[in-house]
Amino acid sequence: MTLRDILDAVARGVFPPADGRTTVVPQPSPRDAGVLACTAHAVVFTDEDPAWVHGTLGALSLDPLSAATSPRFLTALMDRTGRRCEVVDALLVADPLPGRPPLALTETEDPAHSRVAYARDRRDGVRAWSARGGVLVLGRGVAGRLEVSVEVDEDVRQRGLGRQLVTAARHLVTEPLWAQVAPGNARSVRAFQAAGYRTVGAEALLLR
């Protein structure tokens, strides 16, 4: 089973068994390594020896329900791979919606925008759309899944534009749409949830 198989199943509402175990699968690409945590089951996607992963987890004497996303294991994995991890994100997914986006969008190719530049560093096939006061970005990230990110200008925040943008994104796609959101960014979490995105787990990406 590949990471993409697991993600496709999760998008359908079929999760790994809640058995406290950790599954190790190969990296889907040289770029992407990390940990996906669902309820009581973790998936470590790395090209490191699975025996090392399981041995390290066992030696740390951590709660098996959360061991793979603990700071101690992530630090060991970063030291082993020479990678870095910025944050453990909440992972959300939503199904596509029919019809045109309920928001006026203009596709843009502005490479200077910080959100577009950030996405191109981590995703393939990046496309971006602008709306008055915000930008919406789509691209293929981990295991080729389609990912969305948005940014709203400071002077128009807390007026619902973020929710409108992530809702509009669902009208631009024909497959499940994924989002990674820092749990501490409560405003963004609320916007995605209000737009119909479902929280399905947590994810720590290890960056080269």
Descriptive overview:
The protein is an alpha+beta fold. It has six helices and ten strands. The protein has helices at 3-11, 50-59, 71-81, 114-122, 161-171, 186-194; strands at 21-25, 33-38, 41-45, 88-94, 106-108, 124-131, 134-140, 146-152, 177-181, 198-206. The chain has a ten-stranded mixed beta sheet with strand order 1-3-2-10-4-9-8-7-6-5, with helices on both faces. A hairpin with a 5-residue loop joins strand 7 and strand 8 (146-152). Helix 5 crosses helix 6. The longest helix is centred in the middle third of the chain and has 11 residues, at 71-81. The mean pLDDT is 93.
Low-confidence stretches: none
The end-to-end distance, rounded to whole angstroms, is: 24 Å
Portion of residues in helices? 25-40%
Q: Which structural class matches the secondary elements?
A: alpha+beta
Instruction: Write the element-wise H/E pattern from the N-terminal end onward.
Output: HEEEHHEEHEEEHEHE
Strand order of the largest sheet: 1-3-2-10-4-9-8-7-6-5
Q: How does the overall form come out from the CA principal axes?
A: elongated
- β-strand percent reads 25-35%
Q: For the CA atoms, what is the radius of gyration?
A: 17 Å
Mean pLDDT: 93
Number of helices: 6
Largest sheet: 10 strands, mixed
Tally the beta strands. 10
